[in-house]
Specification:
The protein is mainly beta. The chain contains four helices and 27 strands. Helices cover 8% and strands 39% of the residues. The strands form six sheets. It has an eight-stranded antiparallel β-barrel. A seven-stranded mixed β-sheet has the order 18-7-8-9-10-11-19. Strands 1, 12, 13, 14 and 17 form a five-stranded mixed β-sheet that branches. Keywords: Signal.
Length: 425
């Protein structure tokens, strides 16, 4: 009897080679061989468990369902002027991927036979097909959203790539359609996974060894950053765009253990346009999704960086409800008011709220930094009262006897503008 483990890896390698074709390969057609049972079993066994960030309002979704409710457009550049033409009011998925006669359109460029939705149309000038989703799809649905898997091979490395679809990205540049991915790697003909490759934004991929990862049974744990949905191996705060000092925050909010579906079985497989619309930049910023031959060789990467912070940590001494028995001291104001404050366990980076009796304002507090003797939070006023409060500021808290010393600094300023002593409410 042949060793079933060895046969499983042979199936993975063979089918991976068949699927990792060149970039001009045709999409799989009805009647062609489907991915074998052994490969499906492997893909289901090692499908990741994804922790969505706390408070992220745009979760994962079903790409087929979203595309069915979308319209299809062509973004062309005619004599340097963008031109957007609606191709279909409601998408037919088999046509999108070219399993039936693909969507086609004339181009103002000299393209013989026009352009097709299952062919590359971008020529360095932003021209190409893009989907415009119905706004109702933006929230997604972690309860029904699948994981799309694809096998690829690169030399002695074989991997199952899992594609994660989010209908909306609201991080830095808001846009529809957000495809993220991770890849479970196998090497040298061995059946055990050796690690996982992670992608995020437009940055290079990174690799984490299997022994470094959290696992849920046989399934690796992945953390999805709030808003951006970048994929990370560990919970925490990361430099997403170092020059701009923008952070990705990955926390343990909603657990998403989507059912794996072979991407080559999807009716839209083969579509090479963009998934989504960005207001003010149609056709330019919804990302490309999975298609035949895409990134088949990018299964390596440097070691993944550890988070800058393991996540917002609020020492116990600061947690709870607080109030100032005496009015806040603010030399630059003639108003008499008090402060009430609640500090909680972090929900993403939100750690509480403030209220100002006497002014009628309410603010949301977000984590900035902490140590055992200091907590610094930013305040953003979300409700104005009878007196208009400064919208953005920073609050520093330090233990003082049985209470806390409260110091407020206006946004962008360096000098303390107001102080108070607060006690437990």
């Amino acid at each position: 009897m042949r060793n079933p483990v060895v046969m499983t890896l042979m199936a993975v390698t063979l089918l991976s080679a068949l699927l990792s074709c060149d970039d001009n390969a045709r999409p799989q057609r009805p009647g062609e061989a489907e991915p074998g049972t052994a490969l499906r079993v492997l893909a289901e066994r090692y499908a990741p468990v994804v922790w969505l960030a706390k408070g992220d309002k745009n979760g994962p979704g079903d790409a087929s369902r979203a595309a069915e409710g979308a319209s299809l457009w062509l973004n062309d550049l005619c004599d340097g002027v963008p031109s957007n033409t609606q191709i279909a009011d409601r998408v037919e998925l088999p046509k999108l991927g070219g399993r039936e006669a693909a969507y086609s359109a004339a181009s103002c460029a000299a393209v013989v036979g026009g352009v097709q939705s299952d062919k590359h149309t971008a020529a360095g000038d932003g021209r190409g097909f893009y989907l415009d989703f119905d706004d109702s799809s933006r929230a997604g649905d972690p309860g029904t959203a699948p994981l799309y898997w694809q096998a690829v091979v690169d030399g002695n490395r074989t991997a199952i790539v899992y594609w994660l679809f989010y209908p909306y990205n609201d991080f830095v540049n808001d846009h529809e359609g957000d495809w993220e991915r991770v890849a479970v790697q196998f090497r040298d003909g061995r059946p055990e996974p050796v690690g996982v490759t992670f992608w995020k934004h437009n940055e290079p991929e990174c690799f984490a060894w299997w022994r470094e990862l959290e696992v849920d049974g046989d399934r690796p744990v992945v953390y999805s950053a709030s808003g951006s949905h970048g994929s990370y191996p560990w919970m925490g705060t990361y430099d997403a765009f170092v020059a701009d000092k923008i952070n990705d925050v990955a926390t343990k909010g909603t657990r998403w253990a989507g059912r794996p579906r072979s991407v080559v079985d999807e009716p839209w497989w083969g579509y090479r346009g963009r998934w989504g619309y960005q207001a003010g930049a149609p056709g330019s910023d919804g990302p490309h999704g999975p298609y035949p031959g895409r990134d088949a060789s990018t299964l390596g990467g440097e070691g993944c960086a550890r988070p800058d912070k393991a996540g917002p940590e609020v020492p116990e001494v600061f947690r709870g409800g607080w109030r100032s028995p005496a009015p806040v001291v603010q030399p630059t104001s003639d108003k008499t008011y008090h402060v009430e404050m609640t500090i909680t366990e972090p929900d993403g980076d939100v750690v509480g709220e403030t209220r100002y009796p006497g002014l009628g304002c309410r603010g949301v507090l977000r984590f900035s930094r902490s140590d055992p003797a200091t907590l610094v939070v930013t305040e953003h006023i979300v409700e104005q009262g009878t007196t208009r409060c400064v919208v953005d500021g920073s609050i520093t808290l330090r233990p003082d006897g049985d209470g806390l010393r409260w110091e407020y600094t206006e946004g962008g300023a360096s000098r303390v503008a107001a102080t108070a002593d607060v006690v437990r409410a």
